[in-house]
Write a structure and sequence with these properties.
mainly beta, 5-stranded mixed sheet, 4-stranded parallel sheet, 9 strands
């Protein structure tokens, strides 16, 4: 998914186990998925922040490059790349039991 000045929201009740890329500018990225998902995250934002919330699944984010605008992590040992890039916007990653229970605009 790629856009300019458009928010990207991914919310799915199915586990995400394939490669994906989300790229935008001047807007936010919100990725909400189930704990059975898997992937190797490579996320960067310039002029924004990255926030991750993992309620379910095995989330490992111990890379030395991680800070408020860079995140390199794995979910459930996945090798499929999940790439997120943003300029002047935030990246929010939420991994929960039921993605639809987070509400339309609710951020846990």
């Amino acid at each position: 998914l790629s856009t300019i000045r458009g928010e990207i929201r991914v919310r799915t009740p199915w586990p995400m186990t394939q490669p994906c890329a989300l790229v935008t500018k001047d807007a936010d990225i919100s990725w909400i998925t189930r704990g059975e998902s898997a992937g190797e995250f490579d996320c960067e934002t310039v002029g924004g922040n990255i926030v991750s919330y993992c309620r379910y699944g095995r989330w490992i984010a111990i890379d030395k490059r991680n800070d408020m605008n860079s995140l390199h992590a794995t979910l459930n040992g996945g090798k499929n790349p999940i790439v997120m890039r943003n300029v002047d916007g935030d990246i929010r990653i939420t991994i929960v039991e039921d993605p639809h229970s987070t509400g339309t605009f609710h951020w846990p």
